[in-house]
Amino acid sequence: MQLLTELYKITSKSGREDKIKSFLLDCLKDIQIQIETDAIGNLFITKGQADIYPCIAAHLDEIHTPCKREIVIDNDTIYAVDEMWNRVGCGADDKNGLWIVINLLRSEPILKVALFVQEEKLGIIAGCRGANSCDLSFFNNVKYILECDRKGAHDVVAIGKGDIPLCDDKFIPQTILDKFDYQLVSGGKTDVVALKMRGLKIPVCNISCGYYNAHKNNEYTQFSELQNCLSFVKEILSEETNEKECK
Ligand SMILES: [Zn+2]
């Protein structure tokens, strides 16, 4: 839980993602990875050598106005307060996705990771600015993208806002969905939806990662649900490896 509380302490309002990037790079400094960036500031990470990679996505920014945050752990629930002990958003949307990414880069031998800046709307400026401006060639040798940026604990968003098809209903085997108590749903917009709208052909989805009340002062996370998300994603990645080994 310590990694998550450290992530929550770092504010990363859209366009001001430098501190969270530095923290991430420090976390990953002992892992053999290649890191690329682009003009807007997205991070693209490659671990291991393979012809084709699974890819995990998350966004680096959050909606909340920066303030000094104290992190409160109440059994399985984690949230943030300010210096006056008033509830403030903890940035779980999408620090939970970053927590998943750090854990997977530590454990998985073959992985690509796309970390987008400026996913959140900024006043009247539309969101997904990082995903809308990135070079799609990073995904040329990617088989699918799993983004961990969905509220709750049980959703795999297979159809994005605006009826954008993200993946078909057999993309994740039903046995794995059942085992981790996930189901396919229609949902909102995030980076992978923006990539599909730009014409990306590979399957993508957006997975619940245990946060609630995103964008509000009473945002919180159920830690066991975030852990279940990590186990679910690991199982999808290992299913992929099994498939390759059988061929
Ligand atoms: Zn988000």
Describe the 3D structure.
31% of the residues lie in helices and 28% in strands. The radius of gyration is 17 Å and the shape is globular. With 247 residues, it is an alpha/beta fold. A hairpin with a 7-residue loop joins strand 12 (204-212) and strand 13. It has a single domain, classed as Zn peptidases (Aminopeptidase). It contains 7 helices and 13 strands. The protein binds zinc ion (ZN). Residues 59, 93-94, 119, 149, 190 line the site of zinc ion. The site of zinc ion (ZN) has 6 residues, from helix 3.
What ligand species are in this complex? zinc ion
Query: What CATH architecture do you see?
Result: 3-Layer(aba) Sandwich
Morphology call: globular
Radius of gyration: 17 Å
CATH class: Alpha Beta
Oligomer: single chain
In N-to-C order, the SSE pattern is HHEEEEEEHEHEEEHEHEEH
CATH superfamily: Zn peptidases
Fraction of residues in β-strands: 25-35%
Give me the secondary-structure category: alpha/beta
Question: How much helical structure, as a percent, in the residues?
Answer: 25-40%
Sketch the major β-sheet.
Answer: 13 strands, mixed
Tally of structural domains: 1
CATH fold-type name: Aminopeptidase
Question: Count of helical segments?
Answer: 7
Q: Could you tell me the mean pLDDT?
A: 96
Number of strands: 13
Span between termini: 38 Å
List the uncertain runs.
none
